[in-house]
Amino acid sequence: MAKAERAETAAAQSPAIPYDEMRGLDGKVRPHYAELAARIETLSSEELSERQRTLERFFLLQGITFTVYGAESTTERIIPTDLLPRIISAEEWKVIETGLTQRLKALNMFLADIYSGQQILMDGVVPRDLVLNAPSYQRAMQNLYVPHQAYANVCGSDLIRQPDGTFAVLEDNLRVPSGVSYMLANREASKRVFPGTFRGAGVRPIDRYPDMLLTTLKSMAADWRPNPQVVVLTPGVYNSAYFEHAYLARLMGVPLVEGRDLVVHDNMVYMRTTTGLRRIDVIYRRVDDDFIDPLTFRRDSGLGAAGLFNAYRAGNVVICNAPGTGVADDKAVYAYVPEIIRYYLGEDAILPNIETFLCREPAQLSHVLANLDKFVVKAVGASGGYGMLVGPHSTKAQQAEFAAALKADPDNYIAQPTIQLSTGPCLIGNEIDARHVDLRPFILSGDKIVVTPGALTRVALRKGSLVVNSSQGGGSKDTWVLTDRKDLQP
Amino acid sequence: MMLARVADSLYWIGRYVERAEHLCRLSDVMLTATLDRTESATQVARIALAAVGDEADLKKAQDPYEAARALVLDREDTGSVASSLGFARENARQVRDQITTETWERLNMIHFRMTDPNAGRAFADGSQAFLHDTIADLHLFKGAADATMSHGEGWRFLLLGVYLERAQLIGSLLEVCFGEKSKRILADHTAQTSLLRMSCALEPYLRVYTADIRPDLILEFLLLDDDFPRSMRFCTARIEEHLASIGRHADAESPGPDRLAGRLRARLQYADIDEVQAGGASVFLAAILDECAAVHKAVYEAFVAYPLEQRLPA
After folding, report:
1. Which of A61, A236, A275 sits opposite B109 (nearest CB)?
2. A440 with A421: CB under 8 angstroms?
């Protein structure tokens, strides 16, 4: 009897059934999916595959590819893309939008604080050593003026939908978040594949993203510089996100520069043009902190420009995102974000965090060690789905390996309960089947904060898999945020 | 104003695309001519191979199919069509933000055709069709660039590359046929029409000179015709025009390439065929090719790899 009771509570605590984006528990199609579901009904599996091929051809022709270096030859592949859009209703989006705005506002205030007076550390809200010892904390940023306190000008937060249907933040990306070009390209493609459904559904447009990005970047330039020169800094053509760098530069109409195009002289940054040197005001850099300036950061880097950081310190150029923003998306600092929001804004977090155990706390560590088969364990400094243990899908040997690592270096790990990501319909082969999805919206912050009404939905294409990273067999799909029907009244 | 690196890439896209088109045409003419197993057909193969710098290897002329296949598809050879197109696309990828999507798509498609695992088989099944399609696609690329890109500085660099490369390719071909070592290589009708075909000039030539095909008339046509887009006179006039326009965008601090291009253009503008032949065609051709190389070097020094010291603000 007692045994049965325990089993029941365990089931209630971790409901095994993931939230289905398209259908309710009763199997009925949710209202915001009605249009798409009706359209799919009318299409045969051959017609669906045909559309999928149209979509893949569009990506190949556009050069939206990554290069696979093999032994024999190098080939180019497109990022796996699914043709069935993921749909979010207007009401749900309102929560996401206000939640993300609140969150980024607080995180920017947090960055401004820890890189100046460090009041939040003095008040003991976030442990001092946690912040100052984080590898992403950049001492060089201390007491440096950042316009509008906008440290993270471009933020891509990863949200997941929990079994109860609420969205929660899994992690923030404040360094050099990527994926926005896929959001835009997926939209282009889905307009070709489902034009009728698209028109009928009332999807909010996202095509303003490039010009809003440019406006954001320009708002970071010094007031006395009329017509600031903005550039995108890329590591170069061999970077896996190169397509995105070129895409954004093209859509913003600004030069795409590499480190070798830049010259720093007298604390001013110039680019080499056919007509000589031309001064640069704002650099939207897609190069990691460590590589932007060999004089200040990694000496062996050839991707940045020597002296860039000094020019930044002197206020002659703006680097976006600011170096050192990574300290606010550190996986351990993440656990404190709800406190950070309360501390600066006096509000409760609109979007909840996932429950997170910090292995640096002995009590939490022993709890994690005792339940390794139930937790997802992540290395604090790692990203892209690497250095991670998914408890329920792991072997005893993997668990033992992580247990040893956890004990050896507890500061470096956090653990979260395994969350069943929500599922959405995907075309797998010729059949429609459910796969786990997450959601990465993009938030811009300069003189104001703007959330683009769309997102990149990443899909774990392997059945049952919860890992959506493209480096680990993930794909993506278009995300439709619907217009509030009330707003459509003339 | 544009990035120096970008200008350089656009210039090289133009050069590589033109080179690929020319090599396709040489291969095509060589393969078509050598369908007849005659001595004059072998002569055509020799002309084509000599024009791409393979003159020492006379053995290759005995197996024109293999020579053509390597010229087109061999990716180990940096001078092949496949390599040239690979370089062109690589450069295009580096300046993807500067060329229109329409232009990019054309080049990307050609690249996929050349690197397709079945490319070898497609070439074997019908090499003429394969080459014909590739040339047609390259024309589409140039057409898309013309019709969709702004005719500003970037487009000028692209075309500067195209015409400079074309002048050098046609120049080399003429040197093979009329230069010092060219002893009676254009002996018969087959070789003469093949030379015209290699320059894509047969039909335009016939319209000017009728079917009276003679080496001296061919030389005159390919050197000095005012309107034919592959004549040296036409190419050098375009080189000067594009450089003058680029100079307008530039600071005009460095008169180097403009001056050289003007001199080159004038040399062809005011030459007549009797004078050229009196002085020796090979001397004339060598001088032109030297000047083309000098223009290339001056462009690089003026716009791409200029010394920084002169350009830093005081």
Report:
1. A61
2. no
B2–A242 CB contact, under 8 Å = no
Instruction: Give how far A485 is from chain B: nearest CA, Å.
Output: 35
Q: Which CA distances in Å does A446 have to A103, A219, A449?
A: 15, 6, 7
Q: Record the tokens describing residue A257, joined without a space.
A: 């520069």
- What lies within 8 Å, CB to CB, of A401 at 6+ separation is none
Ordered by start, the domain boundaries in chain B are 4-307
Read off the pLDDT of residues A251-308 as tens digits, 9 standing for 90 and up.
Answer: 999 999 999 999 999 999 999 998 889 999 999 999 988 888 888 888 777 788 889 9
Rounded distance between C-alpha atoms, residue A72 and residue B115, angstroms: 13
Burial class (CB in 10 A: 0-12, 13-18, 19+), B65: middle
- Looking up residue A251, the CATH number of its domain turns out to be 3.40.50.11290
In angstroms, the CA A157 to CA A350 distance is 14
Chain A nearest-CA residue for B109: A61
Domain boundaries, position A299? 223-314
Report helix angle B127-148 to B64-73, nearest 10. Answer: 30
Within a domain: residue A270? yes
Q: How many domains does chain A have?
A: 1
Enter the pTM of the model. Answer: 0.87
Of A258, A266, A274, the CB nearest to B2: A274
Question: A56-113 pLDDT, tens per residue?
Answer: 888 888 878 766 655 555 667 778 899 999 999 999 999 999 999 999 999 999 999 9
Position A195: which residue type?
P
Closest residue by Cα to residue A450 from A234, A217, A222 = A217
The ipTM is 0.81
